[in-house]
Design a protein that fits this description.
Layout lengths: L15 H16 L25 E2 L12 H4 L14 H5 L9 E6 L5 E4 H5 L5 E9 L3 E11 H7 L8 E6 L19 E5 H5 L4 E6 L2 E2 L9 E3 L12 E7 L6 H5 L23 E4 L7 E3 L7 H4 L13
Parallel strand pairs: 1-4, 2-11, 5-12
Antiparallel strand pairs: 2-3, 4-5, 5-8, 6-7, 6-11, 8-9, 8-10, 12-13
The structure holds ligand MTE.
The site of ligand MTE has 15 residues, from loops.
Length: 317
């Protein structure tokens, strides 16, 4: 794969241990009184120690050379409506989710289908850390060190047939574990979809961890999708089913508000949301006034623009 501008050079990489200890230093400095001059800087918490550490290799080529957002923001400022609509609700409420054991069903237009224990599916699957930009449709962004593997690697194992044109993903429906599903804020279960070539693109990840440890519940444990050039809502959490389809699947935000959220949801600074601009984004963890211009395809244009050649991205938003 081509290296995109702004990608990290191997020599520039800060190993996780190093930036974690740098954070510990910063925390010490703040405790010493520097907080008064740095109102938005906070002592970062290390990833929750009770979450299992993962074995993975860092994929430098596909990582961006940006400082990752603090762990406490990635895990404390979330959208996961199954646990409430405030950004702090998922962290407060997601302990009712039981991510282990977990079943994953592969269905639809494939030679091999069935329901599997997630641990069996992950057995022997090498994991990579990739530091990706993350852009929410609400015009805020983060930089997240995910741990996962290419979705395409999993899909190929099930031998999709020639009728498989799309892939549909479904979140767990269990109001006992996900109390927000008792309220009709969204149609449940949450569903999402990708075109087959988007699903097979090497940047598209199935994620099982972040900051080197298994995903906290609020970030979509035990398995979520990440498509870094699309708005964050494509990143469906706590996936229980992956289905190959011939027709374009529905996706939850498009069902809920079709004029505001499309199927493609490619990050596009020149197509405003009907109620706000997408030209810039608030940088989470950078203070309330930290904004930066939004990049076409969230900075991944050199890798993915070809997928949309000939399409009108204003119509297919
Ligand atoms: N998946 C499910 N099942 N339920 C949700 O409410 N929210 C989406 C997406 N995946 C959501 C979901 C939205 S709107 C965003 S921006 C991202 O998750 C947020 O991911 P994060 O909380 O890890 O930042």
């Amino acid at each position: 794969m081509m290296r995109m501008p702004g990608r990290i050079a191997p020599s520039e990489i800060t190993p996780r241990e190093l930036f974690m200890s740098r954070r510990a230093l910063l925390a010490g400095a703040l405790a010493g009184g520097a907080a008064a001059t740095l109102p938005e800087a906070r002592a970062d918490t290390a990833p929750a120690a009770q979450l299992e550490p993962l074995h993975y290799t860092l994929n430098r080529q596909d990582s961006v050379s940006l400082q990752p957002t603090p762990y406490e923001d990635i895990t404390g400022y979330n959208n996961f409506y199954e646990f409430g609509t405030d950004k702090s609700d998922p962290q407060a409420n997601a302990s009712t989710l039981r991510p282990r054991p977990w079943s994953l069903t592969i269905a639809g237009e494939a030679e091999i289908t069935g329901t599997y224990d997630l641990q069996d599916i992950l057995k022997g699957q090498p994991l990579e850390e990739r530091i990706y930009r993350f852009r929410c449709v609400e015009a805020w962004s983060m930089v997240i060190p995910w741990v996962g593997f290419e979705l395409g690697a999993l899909l190929r194992r099930f031998k999709p047939t020639s009728r498989a044109k799309y892939v549909e993903f479904t979140t767990l429906y269990d109001p006992a574990q996900m109390p927000g599903e008792r309220y009709s804020i969204l149609p449940w279960p949450y569903v999402e979809g990708l075109r087959m070539d988007e699903a097979m693109h090497p940047l598209t990840l199935l994620v099982v961890g972040l900051y080197g440890r298994v995903l906290p519940n609020q970030d979509g444990a035990p398995l979520r999708l990440i498509v870094p050039w699309k708005y964050g809502f494509k990143g469906i959490k706590s996936i229980v089913q992956i289905r190959f389809t011939e027709r374009q699947p529905r996706n939850t935000w498009n069902i809920a508000a079709p004029d505001e959220y499309g199927f493609y949801a490619n990050v596009n600074p020149s197509v405003p949301h009907p109620r706000w601009s997408q030209a810039t984004e608030r940088v989470i963890g950078g203070g309330w006034f930290a904004r930066q211009p939004t990049l076409m395809f969230n900075g991944y244009a050199s890798e993915v623009a070809d997928l949309y050649r000939g399409m009108d991205l204003r119509r297919d938003f």
